[in-house]
TrEMBL record:
Family from the record: Belongs to the PspA/Vipp/IM30 family.
UniProt lineage: Bacteria, Bacillati, Actinomycetota, Actinomycetes, Micrococcales
Sorted UniProt keywords: Coiled coil
Domain of life of the source: Bacteria
Protein name, per record: PspA/IM30 family protein
Stretches assigned to coiled coil: 132-166
Species annotation: Microbacterium psychrotolerans
Pfam families given in the database record: PspA_IM30
InterPro entries per record: PspA_VIPP1
Length: 245
C-alpha cells in the first residue's frame, strides 16, 4: 500500500501543469513556494520508499539466488549418493547401495523443493524490478519538475523585483511632475493672462462708457437747438436769423 501510495503521488505531481496552476493562483509566488515544498517533501518520501523497495527486492533476489544455489547443491549431493550406491551395488553390497539410493532420492526431493521456491519467486522479482524502474523514472521526473519550479520561482521573483523597481521609478517621476516648477510657471502664466484679460475688459468697458457720455452731450446740443428754433418761431423771428444770432 505504501508503494502504491507513493507511486500515486509521484504520478499526480508529474502530471501537474505548473503554468495552469500559476495562472489560476491568486498569489503565484506563494503557489510556487508551496509547490516547491510539496515536491521537496514528496521527493524525500519517494527516495525513502524507493530505497525500501529496492532493499526488499535485493532480499528477494538474494533468497532466489540461495534457492538456486541450494537446488544445485542438493543436485550434486543426489548425484554423489547415486554414484556411491552404484559402486556398492557393483561390489555386491546391495544393502548399503539401497541406503545411498534413498539418500539420493531425498536429495532430489530437496532439489525439487528449492527449484520450486526459486521458480515461484522469479515473477515477483521481475515485477518488483519493473516497479523500481518506474519509481526511479518518476523520481527523476519529480526532480526535473522541482528544478523547473525553482527556475520559475527565481524568474517570478526577478520579474516581481523589476516591476517593483519600475513602479518606484514611475511614482518618483509622478511626484516630480507634481512639483515640476515649469508646471507652476504655466499656472502663473495662465493667471497673468487672466489678469491681463480682465484689465483689457475694464478698459474696453471704460471706453464704452466715455463714448456714451459724449453721445449724450451731442443729444443735449440737438435738444437745445430745437428749443431755440421753437422760441424763434413763437417770437416771429425768422429761423435763419435765429441761427445767425
Amino acid at each position: 500500500m505504501a508503494k502504491q501510495s507513493i507511486f500515486g503521488r509521484i504520478s499526480t505531481l508529474m502530471k501537474a501543469n505548473i503554468n495552469a496552476l500559476l495562472d489560476s493562483a491568486e498569489d503565484p509566488q506563494k503557489m510556487l513556494d508551496q509547490l516547491v515544498r510539496d515536491y521537496t517533501n514528496s521527493i524525500a518520501d519517494a527516495e525513502s520508499a524507493i530505497a525500501e523497495t529496492i532493499g526488499n527486492l535485493r532480499l528477494l533476489e538474494r533468497d532466489h539466488q540461495e534457492d538456486v544455489q541450494a537446488a544445485a547443491e542438493w543436485g550434486n549431493k543426489a548425484l554423489a549418493a547415486s554414484r556411491k550406491a552404484d559402486e556398492l551395488r557393483k561390489a555386491g553390497n546391495t544393502t548399503d547401495a539401497d541406503k545411498f539410493d534413498n539418500l539420493a532420492k531425498i536429495a532430489l526431493q530437496r532439489q525439487i523443493s528449492e527449484e520450486n521456491e526459486a521458480r515461484a519467486i522469479a515473477p515477483t522479482i521481475a515485477t518488483q524490478n519493473e516497479v523500481v524502474d518506474k519509481l526511479k523514472e518518476g523520481l527523476n521526473g519529480m526532480k526535473q519538475k522541482l528544478e523547473q519550479l525553482r527556475s520559475k520561482r527565481s524568474e517570478l521573483l526577478a520579474r516581481a523585483k523589476t516591476a517593483e523597481a519600475q513602479n518606484k521609478v514611475h511614482d518618483a517621476v509622478k511626484s516630480i511632475d507634481v512639483l515640476d516648477p515649469t508646471s507652476e510657471l504655466g499656472r502663473f502664466e495662465d493667471k497673468v493672462r487672466r489678469q491681463e484679460a480682465l484689465a483689457a475688459g475694464k478698459q474696453e468697458l471704460a471706453a464704452s462708457s466715455l463714448d456714451a457720455q459724449f453721445n449724450a452731450l451731442e443729444d443735449v446740443g440737438e435738444l437745445t437747438e430745437v428749443e431755440a428754433r421753437l422760441a424763434a418761431l413763437k417770437s416771429g423771428t425768422p429761423v435763419q436769423a435765429a441761427i445767425e444770432n
